[in-house]
Amino acid sequence: MDSHWDLPSLRGTVRLGGPNKPKLNSITVYDVKFYPYTLPGVDPVFAVCGGPHVIVYRCVLHQNQTVEVLYWSENELETSSDGKPVYYNSLAWAQAENGDPLLCVAGSGYHQIKVLNVAKQELVATLIGHGDDINDLAVSPIDPSILASCSIDHSVRLWSLSLAHKAQPLAAVCYGQGHKDQILTLAFHRSGRFILSAGMDTKVIMWVVPKTLKEHAGTDKPAKIHYPHFATTEVHTDFVDCVQWYNDLIFSHACREAKIMLWKIDGFSSDSASIPDAPVPTSAAITSRTPVTVPAHSSSTTRSAWGGRFQRLLQFSLPDTDQFYIRFNLFHELGRHPILAAGNEKSKAFFWDLQRLEDSGTGGDASQDGKATLKGLPRHIREGSVSSNGSSAMSTASGTTKGTKRKVKEQPRDRGIADPFTSIKAHKVVEIPKYMPFPFRQFGWSRDGQWCVGAADHGLINVFHRWEKGVPPVKLESQVVLPMR
Questions:
Q1: 17, 35, 76, 399: most buried by Cβ count inside 10 Å?
Q2: In 141-176, which positions are buried (b, 16+ CB within 10 angstroms) versus exposed (e)?
Q3: In this structure, what DSSP letter does residue 85 have?
Q4: What's phi and psi for 105, nearest 5 deg?
Q5: Residue in 471, 472, 476 with CA at minimum distance from that of residue 43
């Protein structure tokens, strides 16, 4: 049996169209997602989208084969009514009430979300409501019938895929005192109670999902969420194109920063029974007829319902990522090492083992065989943050401003987790051979962590694999203890 410490290696690269259909070779494959409801022992299935195409593959471990096509759908529209090219950039797996796999897809030039029943290979719903192109989709981890979407129209929308709500599926709209430019990315918290969104205004925002969500679905009165519970422009200085929860911590990436950030919201805990009211900006409070509480430090570029700001924890070196829409993905399952995967514009895939970082502590590299002594976390992470009255650590030490876009050259490192302002080098870097340099766009992980797929430009789908001798048994005692709340 193979080791939990193994990191994926390239097993094969699929190019859409191959040598016979050069038109498909030019397609950017923007998104990849594994079907999350696969039973143990069943070959994992994943979907990709790009151009007008949505393709579903199964992973196989045959000697001369890595994947096989299960389903291929092509949008009949090549251009929109105003002449813009139509292409898919986002997808998310959901599940019908009878257990059928549903694939939600959306993109540019087409302001609607298509819901495909992959088992029946048919379109079962079209969600209409966004006023512009859609940039990302996510399904609730606790309810596979709840879909979130974000758009160029500055809004996050929540939909119900339940048959009972088919006539009026829109359940909630997050819009108003949130984003001021197009939203590029969003992510559900594991509890399903919170959603992160981020975009071109450099904001990272957290919305609270209303408990009455299903009561609004199926009616002509969707819930209106005007105020986010957290919003900041201090974490990043450029377009934020990827966010993801890690328990109660947040991973985020912005173009032209050459790093992925790990940080936390001061005072936030998803375990709390009650959630404080959303903070109201000063301008809204002044004009409101309803008594409101103006948060302390309301002139800051960070607003939080928990009274503090945020704390920067770690950063991971990701060079050559000047373009936006370059996304990472975190494998995080019970009893497995958490693995962060990301790619850059130079055909390179990067992997970080977060368990290895924890075992390195503040000192040297971790043992590859898993026998390293657990040294514990440095004090600045383990103790957490106190509510700050002054500028955050991020804003005082970033060394760059939005006005200058001046890059700060940092020395990557691969030792421990002592310094939140020094980038950690990847534990493994894989460069894809044979093709001209290309940017990765997204990564997807199978639920068991055995397979990882990187979607990329030029019609490329890069399939990574580990554990040739079989998936190692779950080790509950080896969970990483990076801060969770």
A1: 35
A2: eebbbbbbbbbbbbbbbbbbbbeebeeebbbbbbbe
A3: B
A4: -135, 150
A5: 471
Determine the pLDDT at residue 416: 56
In the structure encoding, which two tokens stand for residue 328, read together? 């990472």
Res 18: pLDDT: 81
Q: How far apart are CA 110 and CA 79, in angstroms?
A: 9
DSSP annotation of 305 reads T
294-312 residue pLDDT tens: 554 444 699 999 999 999 9
- Scanning the structure block, which residue is given the tokens 């719903």? 125
The model's pTM is 0.86
Whether residue 424 is predicted with pLDDT greater than 80 in this model: the reply is yes
Contact 208, 158 (CB under 8 A): no
Please give the sequence-ordered ranges of beta strands (E in DSSP) within 63-121, or none if there are none.
65-74, 87-95, 101-108, 112-117
Residues 6 or more apart from 263 whose CB is under 8 A from it? 235, 249, 250, 252, 310, 311, 312, 313, 394
- Helix, coil or strand: residue 298: coil
Q: Are 341 and 485 in contact (CB under 8 A)?
A: no
C-alpha angle 383/389/390, rounded to 5°? 100
Residue with more model confidence, 418 or 388? 418
Q: What is the pLDDT of residues 110-131, one digit of tens each?
A: 899 999 999 999 999 999 999 9
SS3 assignment for 155-184: CEEEEECCHHHCCCCEEEEECCCCCCCCEE
Q: pLDDT confidence of 75, banded at 50, 70, 90?
A: confident
Closest CA to 6 of 449, 332, 442, 361: 449
More confident site: 483 or 462: 462
Q: What percent of the chain has pLDDT over 70?
A: 81
pLDDT grade, residue 380 (50/70/90)? very low
Domains, in order of start, for the chain: 9-390+410-478 (2.130.10.10)
| Contact criterion met (CB below 8 Å) for 220 and 201 | no
